[in-house]
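Protocol step 4 of 6: structure prediction from sequence.
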Amino acid sequence: MTSTRCGVSRGEKNQLLSPNFAVILKQVALVGSIFMSGFLAGSFFFGFFGDRFGRRLALMLAIVLACGAGFGGAFVDSYEWYCVTRFFTGMGTVC
């Protein structure tokens, strides 16, 4: 298959969510899965952290993490970094 100007194959051209960002529907679904993976990892991390250092500190750290990663996700310029910020946003939304 030949590539188009935005880097996706012509077969995937019809599935583009936004031609400006060249994001296909599979990538959108992957972002949701990455968010839920962060939620799972955050459950384990903040569960142990809360038991060890107190629930109030765990809640404050989770809020800071969710806000910071969510704010940072608004300014990323690549799909890969957006996935990273969504993972940490998922970790912070546990509490």
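Step 5 (inspection) to follow. The longest strand covers residues 16-18.
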